[in-house]
Amino acid sequence: MSATVFQSDAPLDECRVIVRRHESDVEMVELPWGLRPRDGGPRAVNVVRSEGRTFPTHRCLVPASEFRHKGFRFSLANGDWFYFAGIWRPATKDWPQAYAILTIEANVDIAPFHDRQMAVLARDQRMAWLDGLLPEDEILRPLPAGTFRVKRHAGAPAQPMLAM
């Protein structure tokens, strides 16, 4: 299975592969990006601020090797791929099953470009997130300075195949 570069300005209904718990197993499913707001409003929510909140159920991971935002590409400095921490919701009568990505304060590498970022998890953190093994404030935090490589976007780079 392959994943595409994650674009923060992608259409809200764009489908992507997510990883989530299904009973005692881990599964990969393709869901649209964008949750219906809790207040029932018509506009989908694609990112959710994580600070001060808990997410005891419906956690997911969104695999990526880089993300883009306003003309810049961000990837891990070591070249590895990673996950965004996310949440998903079951379908309702008027909204499909969908997911959103959690946001945190930007780390030092991203702060010059934006004050927030999507919560990035290293591959070795995946089960801690899915299984709730650490409190949210311990796992949903900015990564150390020097974690990200930042480049001006100059075309669509190849995305390697991802394996679990």
Please describe what this structure looks like.
The protein has helices at residues 126-130, 136-139; strands at 6-7, 15-22, 25-32, 47-49, 59-64, 66-69, 72-76, 82-89, 98-105, 116-118, 120-121, 148-152. The protein has a single domain (6-152), classed as SOS response associated peptidase-like (hypothetical protein yedk fold). The chain is 5% helix and 38% strand. The protein has 164 residues and is mainly β. It is globular. Mean pLDDT is 86; it is low at 156-164. The longest helix is centred in the C-terminal third of the chain and has 5 residues, at 126-130. The strands form 2 sheets. Strands 2, 3, 4, 5, 8, 9, 10 and 11 form an 8-stranded mixed sheet that branches. Strands 1-6-7-12 form a 4-stranded mixed sheet, with no helix packed on it.
